[in-house]
Prior knowledge:
GO terms for molecular function: diaminopimelate decarboxylase activity; pyridoxal phosphate binding. There is one protein chain. The protein has 417 residues and is of the alpha/beta class. It folds into 2 domains: 37-264, Alpha-Beta Barrel (TIM Barrel), CATH 3.20.20.10; 272-413, Lyase, Ornithine Decarboxylase, Chain A, domain 1. It has helices at 7-17, 26-35, 52-60, 70-78, 99-108, 117-126, 164-174, 191-210, 237-255, 267-270, 303-307, 408-413, and strands spanning 21-25, 41-45, 64-67, 90-94, 112-114, 131-137, 159-160, 177-182, 217-219, 260-263, 274-286, 289-294, 313-316, 329-335, 356-359, 366-369, 390-395, 398-403. Strands 1, 11, 12, 13, 14, 15, 16, 17 and 18 form a 9-stranded mixed sheet that branches. Helix 6 links the parallel strand 5 (112-114) and strand 6.
Amino acid sequence: MPAELNPELLTDLARTHATPLWVYDAELIRQRIAELRSFDTIRFAQKACSNTHILRLMREQGVLVDSVSLGEVERALHAGYTLGGEPSEIVFTADLLDRPTLARIVELKVPVNAGSINMLHQLGAVSPGHRVWLRINPGFGHGHSQKTNTGGEHSKHGIWHADLPLALEAIAQHGLHLVGLHMHIGSGVDYSHLSQVCEAMVALAARVQSLGHDIEAISAGGGLSIPYREGDARIDVAHYFSLWDAARQKIAASLQHTVKLEIEPGRYLVAESGLLLSEVRAVKDMGANHFALVDAGFNELVRAAMYGGYHHISVVAGAGNAPLAERASLATVVAGPLCESGDVFTQEEGGVVTHRDLPAPAVGDLLVFHDTGAYGASMSSNYNSRPLCAELLVDGGKTRVIRRRQTIQELLALEDV
Ligand code: LLP
């Protein structure tokens, strides 16, 4: 947990802003950005945390952005990102172009990282000269869960490697401008797959060259892991860079000009900076199991329910409750308020409920879900008609509300038709 987000501050924030509540530490985001500076371009995969204030912080630090929907493009623009420069501050990555998105992308001239050949034809037909990247599925992938594996023949992502000639034909046919090659094979990098991706990228660039095309850049995609569990190793960023840099150099030598190297992380930049604060509202024993029920559910944080995603959970003693040091450790199932059996934070992929040893949680305690800055708030929903909760940014001792809590009236207003 970021040092600045200490239990006293969290108690104070919960009292002032109510729970559930997202809290981010700006300094830790800046630190993670600094660790990736050897790459020519750091492009934030904003799906991980798309709050416009976080995007502004990224832009101030020189971090560019990847958008995967029309909404994310508009968010980037709202946060001050502009278009027209090179490398483009915004790139749109997707496997399809819906009609409104295509129209806006063409109007704004947002470079497109194409994950299907149809995209190239649809774009080329209305916007010759448009700048494009090719997102290639190299035929293998890897993820912390099968659901975050974005390569191989069971994945819907990217242009199949063997279809590269067809993609290049589409580019030539429409006079599109090929900027670069991109691969993102999944979230949760491990080095054995990494060397494989780097080799695949070098081979791919050689094929592009042999088919008479050129590129200015390559993108390593995202997927850098973070240590969610105690004992998880921290990724060696220097080693990661060196593998990609070697690939880039081979490609540049073959093309006989410099080639820019991009990286496109989401989780690595923001996961550890964020936490979800909840309050214990009920405790109960169900046969052999002891439950602590908190006021945050999978509509806030879906990672456990969706992938068996693990988040460290800590307890902050509520006012008037026994200090943690005086409590026995208790194997606890931590669950939320939703009317749904899967609303359990301590579960493995496949829905197997597990326990967490916690200093016996009591009603009024705060439960803190750590490392939830990535794919936390951005994956929240209104399930059970629960409004989206507030987001706070702590920076240099100051706390700012960067999203207020949604109201139930706002939810109902959409249906006042
Ligand atoms: N680039 C592309 C093209 C991607 O599809 C993704 C993630 C990223 C970059 C960033 O990946 P990261 O560095 O954050 O691992 N909701 C899941 C993760 C889904 C990732 C989807 N694509 C989770 O909570 O773990």
